[in-house]
Design brief:
The structure is a single chain. The longest helix is centred in the C-terminal third of the chain and has 23 residues, at 269-291. The protein is of the alpha+beta class. Helix 2 (38-44) crosses helix 3 (125-143) and helix 3 (125-143) packs across helix 4 (157-165). The protein has helices at 28-36, 38-44, 125-143, 157-165, 192-200, 269-291, and strands at residues 7-10, 16-24, 48-51, 58-62, 69-77, 81-86, 89-97, 111-119, 171-175, 180-187, 224-229, 233-239, 242-250, 256-264. The chain has two domains: 7-165, START domain (Alpha-D-Glucose-1,6-Bisphosphate, Chain A, domain 4); 171-291, 2-Layer Sandwich (Alpha-D-Glucose-1,6-Bisphosphate, Chain A, domain 4).
Length: 297
């Protein structure tokens, strides 16, 4: 399963906007039914969506094993536009005739389906993109009369492809008069305990001891552990005034969220750039290793 040319931007309020578009060989009214009828949404979405396509009407989301969630219809223009909230998220669906298909009757023409997903967790965008990619593939199968494939992104490979496509592998540098800090935030595809086991190679680090090599880079070998809370946190001193901190926090359904910070005294710009590149490479190596780690049965 390969990612599409989907995009990630920010709106005027600073919220993240994931935009997807798919051509479907079906008329808009048929796709509209799949967007608005609970029995059909349950076949291709992770939740059964119960709504009346009227502005300001309530929306109920039912996921297996969880309490129902709620939202509100923001806009409904059958069969061309539907928008609603899902908790703090906004989903804006659009349909238009696919003129490239050459059909003379717009109502019977194949259509182009668009989705704008508005949310706050920018670094979680690859998870949302992989999820919608899977859902929209299932939608196309349902519309084609096939049994939908809900295998999804079990190994995380699609997620990692979207990390690159959406530009989510970057880092930031905070420079002050007395320190410089490199920060990386990366959604991972395995839970914290599995990531921790890979980083520690099954050992049990202790405070005051040297951190396992996997927590360092070639230019910054791991030093003495100064703070430790397995499997969520490890900090070590790489110099008298330098600290490197790894945190594995709750992320999306794909796995843990890595927050990594590397701080120390001010450095010349080339040295900062080299350190930034080294930590970027280290995190990408970790992500690749996690992909090669078998998913538990």
């Amino acid at each position: 399963m390969q990612p599409r040319a989907d995009t990630l931007t920010r709106d005027e309020h600073g919220r993240s906007v994931l935009s997807l578009r798919r051509r479907l060989p079906h008329p808009a009214r048929r796709v509209w039914a799949a967007l608005t009828e609970a029995a059909l949404t349950a076949r291709w979405m992770p939740a059964e969506v119960d709504l009346s396509p009227q502005a300001a009407s309530p929306v109920r989301f039912r996921l297996p094993g969880t309490a129902p969630g709620g939202g509100e219809v923001l806009r409904a223009v059958a069969p061309w536009a539907l928008g609603y909230t899902w908790a703090e998220h906004e989903l804006h669906w659009s349909l238009r005739p696919d003129r490239a298909a050459g059909a003379a009757d717009a109502d019977a023409a194949p259509c182009v389906l668009g989705l704008r997903h508005v949310f706050d967790d920018h670094r979680g965008a690859a998870s949302y993109a992989a999820g919608w990619h899977t859902c929209l593939t299932a939608l196309a199968q349902v519309l084609d009369g096939e049994e939908p494939d809900h295998a999804g992104d079990a190994d995380g490979a699609l997620h990692e492809a979207y990390i690159g496509l959406l530009g989510l592998a970057g880092s930031t540098v905070d420079e002050g008069p007395e320190s410089v800090t490199i920060r990386l935030e990366r959604q991972l595809v395995r839970p914290a305990d599995e990531v921790w086991s890979l980083l520690t190679r099954g050992t049990s680090p202790r405070r005051g001891e040297r951190a396992p090599d996997a927590f360092g880079t070639v230019g910054t070998p791991a030093g003495e552990i100064t703070e430790l809370c397995p499997p969520r946190l490890l900090e070590y001193a790489w110099s008298p005034l330098g600290r490197t901190r790894w945190e594995l926090l709750p992320g999306t359904d794909h796995g843990a969220r890595l927050l990594l910070s590397h701080s120390g005294p001010p450095l010349p710009e080339p040295a900062v750039a080299a350190a930034q590149a080294a930590w970027h490479q280290r995190v990408e190596e970790l992500a690749a290793q996690l992909l090669d780690t078998p998913v538990p049965g």
